[in-house]
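Before relying on records like the one below, remember that each one covers exactly one chain. Contacts with other chains, cofactors or solvent are not represented anywhere in the record.
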Amino acid sequence: MQDLVHKEGYPYAFDASACAACGGRCCTGESGNIFVTYQEIRALALFLGLSDDDFKERYLEKRGYKYSLKEKLVDESYDCIFYDRTHNGCSVYKARPLQCRAFPFWDHYKTRVDELKQECPGIIDA
């Protein structure tokens, strides 16, 4: 069995090997927000060879006082702007924001494990 990722305070573990077969359901589906900090904007811009301003214009939407990654509508799914359906993966994986790196350990799912299991096949009861 794969090494499971555990995080204190969460009633589940995560088998990261499930990502290969999943199809990126955590990057698609319902509309939502992936908020980025100014440091993450800079890192993503550098990764893509863009200025911060060009990156913001192409890939971000202002939500109140925060920036969120844009989404693209594909059929009835809202995909992250960086989700590549051809490869079922993130085109900026090495520079992805902390919110993406932290998935599936989001506070929202602490009490919604059944909902998370429908989205992520790597969730294992702890």
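Residues 5-125 form one domain.
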